[in-house]
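call fold target=Lipase domain-containing protein
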Amino acid sequence: ATANTRLVGLEIAYLIRKLQEYRGLQPEDVHLIGHSLGAHTAAYAGERIPGLGRITGLDPAEPYFQGMGPIVRLDPSDATLVDVIHTDGRSVFRLEIPGYGMSHACGHLDFYPNNGKEQPGCALSQEGAATIPLTLIKDGIEEASRVLLACNHIRAIKLFIDSINGKCPYVAHRCPSYQHFLSGNCFKCTSGNCALMGYHASLPITTTRQNVSENDVISGSFSVPVAPQPGKYFLATGRDFPFCQRHYRFTVELAKPKVAEPWVQGHLTAGIFSERGALRNIDLTPKGTARLEHGTTYQVVVTNPHDLGDRIRKVELAWTHDMNVLEPTTLCLFWCNSHLYVKSIQVETMQMPSRE
């Protein structure tokens, strides 16, 4: 199959030329979408058609392509716009279920939902146990095998489909890494740092000078169209349709009274309330527990499918101290203070680029 990708790409290029010759098709109006090997197949076609409008690579295949030169794989020179969604960038040499997609950037806009490696709901203990029997009955053993072995790999297809007519925009932010993104360091749409993942990636981006909700559509004289800058874009998605999530940044400033310990370890949750509704039991320590130092500021990005808008009226925090008997420094018995002291908390909705 890998060897045939170049041949199939040449056939696609031949078809485009004939449509151009007999029907007046303009190359800039052509949008090729390819999954896995299909992404590289589209690249071979674009290589032969100068001025091809757009190629969307849905988790381009890794084996025989990652680490190779641009002439062998999908790259930005294959079309005017090359946008890529990476969802299965784990190594193909894993002893467990391997990854089939590329982790290396290979387009103008490279999107990495959930860091582009393991997607929510694709763990064997989750989707494997819950949906395999039903899929086997409804769609047969072939489709069930795909869900079991290639859940992460085919998630790129589902995300792209969901982005076409979905009301929730897949807002992604240009950032050095996914960890930087989750820490809230890449949160504002300035200087072309935002892009829409999926079908609408080619559309102009509009932002305002102030924060707005991810659900708001911006128009009028105060809006400023900004083209997304080439680079790696990160976002978080859910485990089921609709996959699109709203992003909220929590900034917790910790106080440091004399009675407080230098640091405490535990689990922090929050509830936020607005005119549009409420979200409860939001996990602010997604790694289970966190060591929080008094006198510092803690920042984290969390996601939820519900849009609460910008007018947050109330925030509630719940703190549970955690002790690990295997780590003596975390023990807090009769002689220490296990309370967490909070000076202030700020909740922001991720700044929203809209479709022009």
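return ok
Helices lie at 5-23, 37-48, 124-139, 141-165, 178-182. Residues 175 and 186 are 6 Å apart (CA to CA).
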